[in-house]
Amino acid sequence: MPFHLPQALDPDRAGETPTASATTPTCHLGLGLAAVGRPGYINLGRERDLPADRTVEALRARSHELLDAAYAQGVRYFDTARSYGRAEEFLAGWLKARPYVDDVVIGSKWGYTYTAGWRTDAERHEVKDHTLPTYERQRAETDGLLGDRLDLYQIHSVTPDSPALTDKELHARLAEAAAEGVTIGFSTSGPAQADAIRAALAVTVDGAPLFRTVQSTYNVLETSAGPALAEAHDAGLSVIVKEGVANGRLTGPHAPEALRDIAARTGLGPDAVALAYVLRQPWAGVVLSGAATVGQLTSNLHAAAVDLDEERFARLAALAQEPGAYWERRGQLPWH
Prior knowledge:
Layout: E1 29-32, H1 46-49, H2 56-72, E2 77-79, H3 87-97, E3 105-110, E4 112-114, E5 126-128, H4 132-146, E6 152-158, H5 168-179, E7 183-188, H6 193-201, E8 204-205, E9 208-209, E10 213-217, H7 226-234, E11 238-242, H8 257-266, H9 270-279, E12 286-289, H10 294-301, H11 310-317, H12 323-331
Parallel strand pairs: 1-2, 1-12, 2-3, 3-6, 6-7, 7-10, 10-11, 11-12
Antiparallel strand pairs: 4-5, 8-9
Helix pairs in contact: 2-3, 6-7, 8-9
InterPro entries: AKR2_Oxidoreductase (IPR053135), NAD(P)_OxRdtase_dom_sf (IPR036812), NADP_OxRdtase_dom (IPR023210)
Pfam family, one: Aldo_ket_red
Protein name: Oxidoreductase
């Protein structure tokens, strides 16, 4: 289907006053389904957020509850991936049951295969593979679930050494998908996100840039991708931000003291303040909420109401960590 960027995802319209239309969200936050599409994930506090009996039916119901709440509160971008357990299936079922939901943008990702078998104690929860055969297999799987509702297909977690950045045959297949109306993007992870973004910006097919969107981790603890994301925005890509609350490290009692102090002064949660910091970045198109409960989602959406003056903004900026240390800590988070 033809891809029409909502205003919040369109870098050329980021400064415009929002106008009412079928493709304009009423907020700049999106909803990612990583935390509710599978029984195990690395977010802190997740053992309390989800029911102890994490059946497929229970997580389907939770996903639909979150999607309903997000849509009702103006969220119009929903993000999933092949490796998020049954998240694509849950999203597809929600869309099918609600034919009136025709003004949303749906993004998914390929490149990781879910391997946990719906267990929380699996030795490996996902396996990364950026080769052409994996793309073709997972694209068929995604099409079987989301069909023509898929707007954006992203390479999942590109790093500077990813073969997806140099595989010309893969690039040609992605360009074919783009010609058919699916926007092609990529996400990044790891301490070298900036290098991966800049390498991806150089990828072209027949002289034209291949990628139209980039999704990266950016939060008050991990800001190293910021300059490269600004470059991507200036090059015409739409920027999606993930892990704005650092997998729970910027929420509740886990939040740094400075963040909790600012939150107390605003009367809102640390999560809302952390997301407000990301929304303040001029290149940020959509910032993802990874909420696992409706209460968390509602608190996240309060980010738009946070008043971050220069002093508060500077205090938050001072929390940034060295990228290697940040990603080492993230890699130590257990799968709950």
